Amino acid sequence: MEYSHNFNPGSVAGGGPGLTDQQQAIQMAGTTTTTSMTGSCDGTTMSSPYYSRTDLSMTNCIGSSSFSAPMDDCSSGFQSTSISNYPSELPSSASTTINEYPPQPMPSSSQQQQQQPHPLPPPTNTANNSTHIYQLSKPLPDDDPRGVIEELGRYISEDRDTVVVLHSVLVLFTYTVNSVETRQQLSASPATLSSLYNLLTEGNFNNDSDDSHVAILHFAGATLEYISRYPEGRTALLGCNGLESNDWPSRGIKTLISSLKSVNSHVVVFAIQAIHRLLIDEERADNAKKQIIYAGGVKCIVDQLATQLVDLENIGQFKVVVMTCLQILAYGDMENKLAIYESGGPGLLLRTIRENFNYDPNLQPQADELIETASRVLKSLSVCPSNKDDIIRNDGIQLLTECIKRDNQEILKTCLWTLRNLSDVINNNLSNHNRDVKLLVERLLAILSQYLEEPFILSCALGIMANITCNNEPIKQFICEYNHFTGIDLLLNTIDVALLDYDFRRVNNEADYKKIINEVLEPAVYTLCHLMNQAHYPRLLFERQRVKERLTGDPIKNLKLYNAGGDLEKAYRKLYDLLD
């Protein structure tokens, strides 16, 4: 399964799956004698999420946990820790926060050669897009253009004639697209790259509506975007060669971050796409992350979620790339999670989800992609206490509950994971979100009946319920009375399936089976413990008797649970004591 997934070029004027990399780039961002000038951005973003058997790790939750409940619930002497280190997609017990899975790197060079990058549609508002009028009057010479790279750089940096600068940038871009040698020479020429950086950062042409000035910025940004498609170009942007090697962050990174603040939509699109490629380059990602963070890039990237690029053909695809960058930056880095929080990231991500609930049926795939990508970032953020509270304050429970009602199973899994990470603090905010929590519990109970053969989904749903039933009398009673008193039956049925179905996850040995079913059984039994420990529920004695008959009536089932070992055995023995 590969990380990259290409945007459909069919929506791009002039683009098509039969075009080569160079032809697409010329059509999208440059020109030869016959090609008009429009913007370009290759669209590489994350594929559908998956749950790696080797990448998932567990950490103890910061703060209180509902499995470590106060004395009046079932946790006295039964503080739960992460129960197993089984390398599966299943989370541990609900007393822990699940770490996010790592974003996947850019494909290897051989894989990249097999995949032609498809451009992210650029801004297309013809009222503001004047680059289409600029084209070369005659073909470029076929001889080796390497000798002219430095000369073009001097024209760009030293000449004050706008026409000369525009023509020089245009020729440089066209050579870069058409010639591998030129691309390599440009990547190895810090002086010429510096001239492009100056165009984009010095302000001589920024905030200027003059058509030629807009075109200069357009082609300068397009050239940097194009070289970011290739390893030598990404190395150059990171300042790992020549005169730039002592600058940190590199001028390339500073320029890309600065370009995100541009009023020119083309420049913004080119910059975010180049940043995205740097972040998914396996060899250079760590260096890129450090430089982007140091240059203040996290806030600039978050701000793109609030920016309305009205002349962008497909703002949805642009936001997918932005959010993918945020997920990569947030993964495994608490400081970046806090930086996203301080920049208002959780609220903007939730707004993105909310905006895509009421979608045109024809746009459902894009709406699902936006919701899925936003929920991935929220999942990464949900291991951070500050972000947890901010997600809940911004109606995150309500929105994520709506997400887990959708048909898209990847959205369901990601949002359940996020809710499970939030569940240990939900009760702290119950006074303002009591109705939302009840709607969440209602959906979780429905999930127990719909996804009996999906252990990851069951484990997350049960982990959430185990946490939010801790010392929460209204929710306990709500579950007991759900759908004509069938809430407890749903929990008991789930336990039955986990105990009886030895092909629950198609594993081949008893040890793996036990590790897997514990991920479902432990939170289910803890939830029953909480439900059987109510102070004022009038039907409590009746429900206790009913649960006792179901669990202890089958000697084999009772023996399995009573001798399960670890936290599951502790939980079941506590439940057994409550039922006596």
From TrEMBL:
<feature type="region of interest" description="Disordered">
    <location>
        <begin position="1"/>
        <end position="21"/>
    </location>
</feature>
<dbReference type="InterPro" id="IPR013284">
    <property type="entry name" value="Beta-catenin"/>
</dbReference>
<feature type="compositionally biased region" description="Polar residues">
    <location>
        <begin position="80"/>
        <end position="99"/>
    </location>
</feature>
<dbReference type="Pfam" id="PF00514">
    <property type="entry name" value="Arm"/>
</dbReference>
<dbReference type="InterPro" id="IPR011989">
    <property type="entry name" value="ARM-like"/>
</dbReference>
<dbReference type="InterPro" id="IPR000225">
    <property type="entry name" value="Armadillo"/>
</dbReference>
<dbReference type="GO" id="GO:0007155">
    <property type="term" value="P:cell adhesion"/>
</dbReference>
<feature type="compositionally biased region" description="Low complexity">
    <location>
        <begin position="107"/>
        <end position="117"/>
    </location>
</feature>
<feature type="region of interest" description="Disordered">
    <location>
        <begin position="80"/>
        <end position="146"/>
    </location>
</feature>
<protein>
    <submittedName>
        <fullName>Armadillo segment polarity -like</fullName>
    </submittedName>
</protein>
<keyword id="KW-0677">Repeat</keyword>
<dbReference type="GO" id="GO:0045296">
    <property type="term" value="F:cadherin binding"/>
</dbReference>
<feature type="compositionally biased region" description="Polar residues">
    <location>
        <begin position="125"/>
        <end position="134"/>
    </location>
</feature>
<dbReference type="InterPro" id="IPR016024">
    <property type="entry name" value="ARM-type_fold"/>
</dbReference>
